[in-house]
Amino acid sequence: MKVLAIDSTNFVMGISIVEDHTVLGEVITNLKINHSIRVMPAIQKLLEDCGLTPKDLDKIVVANGPGSYTGVRIGVTIAKTLAWSLGIPLVGVSSLEVLSMNGRYFDGLISPIFDARRGQVYTSLYRVVKGNIIRETEDQILLLSDWVQQLKSRDERVLFLGNDLRIHKQAIVDALGEQAVICHPTENNPRPSELAFIGSTLESNDVHSFVPNYVRLAEAEANWLASNKEK
What we know:
Blueprint: E1 2-7, E2 12-19, E3 22-30, H1 39-49, E4 59-63, H2 69-86, E5 90-93, H3 95-100, E6 109-117, E7 120-123, E8 126-129, E9 132-135, E10 140-143, H4 144-154, E11 158-161, H5 165-176, E12 180-182, H6 192-200, H7 219-230
Helix pairs in contact: 4-5
């Protein structure tokens, strides 16, 4: 089974094609450039490099959030369009879960981090059990200060992953001390091949009803609901 994976939820753009247990090709960039003009050309180029056409694909897997609202929408829209036009299954996977896979050999808790502004982060908690990444909490958005206090009470080592750690590293270390383990820079980019492998084992989603997981409302929508509630 040939699986195309797409991740545009943050600055990192990841495109991968895997077949069964083999990674045929993978493209990863971490650039502040609009994904809307880069994702489709990257998919086309990777297919060509792998000697494939879209009709050779058996499944589409997409990181469906949380992350940048625009980035999430771009990836989900492209994935839905491809899956519908090709008549193949579509699967959505948490972008935080994809990043957590970089900690698969860590003995302790794993906390992938995406910055959500105003002192907040998108995060969740995982641990490795017999070589498998096990989710301990749902994806959430909360103040980093609240999150590190929750982790402190667990009294376990925690591996933090993600490019946005540069924003929050000092606050994490100040709060947790040696309990906090900051990953190596090579572990900050989520791997689209990991996304493909996760999604390859999951049941497909209905293409038409499939939506992103923003975790919170977009600011414009939240403001509209608040103003109408006051009325």
